[in-house]
Amino acid sequence: MLKRYTTAENGKTKLLSLIYTQDEHKIDNKLIDKDAYSVLDTLNANGYEAYVVGGAVRDLLIGCKPKDFDIVTEATPRTVRRLFRNSRIIGRRFRLVHVVFPDQIIEVSTFRSEDATDSENNIFGTLTEDAQRRDFTINSLYYNPSNSRLLDFHGGFNDLNNRILRAVIPIDVSFTGDPIRMIRAVKYAVKCSLEIDSEIKGAFYKYSKELTKVSESRMVEEVNKILLSGHSLEILKRLDKYDLLIFIMPRISEEIMRKNAHLNNDLKELDKAIQSGIQVTPSDAYAALMSFIINKKEVEKLEINDRLSYVMQLLHKALRPLGIPWKILIEAGAKILETKNIEFLKVSKNYDKQNTEIQKAKKAIKALTSNIVKNM
Ligand code: ATP
Ligand code: MG
Hints:
47% helix, alpha+beta, binds adenosine-5'-triphosphate
């Protein structure tokens, strides 16, 4: 292990990062995706520092094949855009670049100095600053496959080996600065079998209400990840244990407390399918999550062309305050009806805003008196 030092403001020498070599971290470079490799190569060849970061490094260290590769670099988005013909700049304020390949998109972001959520003041920074703004030490590891060096600024390598979850900055600052990190903490603890220390657990109870401040889209994104993680049941149970789930999906929290066997089974099946490598879409996952709520006899009392709208309304209501996109709601509703062998009027697969069938379904949701739901 090598050590990199820097000079602190007081003039003293300070440890900056640890550098682990191949014989220590034992990352198998063959597990690195060829497209991610080519992006790193091009950046390096043009003189820009670039690394794999985040979930992919964690997975590589535990010997799993990563599902996606996030890349960070010192090159600005504009430069990255110029280097890759098959790329586009995305994001309104903080811009990152999507490099598009036939089978996937590789996300390339520029080292950032400000907190991830403070996008108004987002400015590009150094690698050290980028490492400082990441949530947990295990997510603050940078890997460069061209020299097989692993850069560790906050002790994440040892934490991962010792199966400990630790925040990069003080936990109160971390969770109040961005409450979604509480959900992420639980997700990582379950996915990577990490011990959550008592300080973090205490902070969950203290700051759980802060979750109401998280934007709908970020919340949905995190819930989607949980449902597609292959560990959804365990993660949801743990989120409930720490009083977090009630602020994410209160109805699911209620059912988990009641030990709803239907829900339990469906999530187990979902996790099994994902772990066995079956491709599962977000709407499949929401169908699995919500199937318990649909009572076949009740639905069959309705006219065939009212059934899907009715199911969508139930899902919408049960998942509140989570705002699930219409497309997912429609697909999940249709899947539940299909699995339960309930006849219904299908909507076309064309989900644009002008689609009259979708408009009809949306109107129906609003128009259907809440009586039906209340009486369930
Ligand atoms: P997953 O396997 O669920 O994708 P991940 O760790 O890759 O896990 P992402 O949401 O893809 O998570 O984010 C990539 C990286 O960006 C994280 O590993 C972390 O370093 C950083 N990051 C993401 N969200 C936050 C956040 N809210 N606060 C601080 N850092 C974050
Ligand atoms: Mg990721």
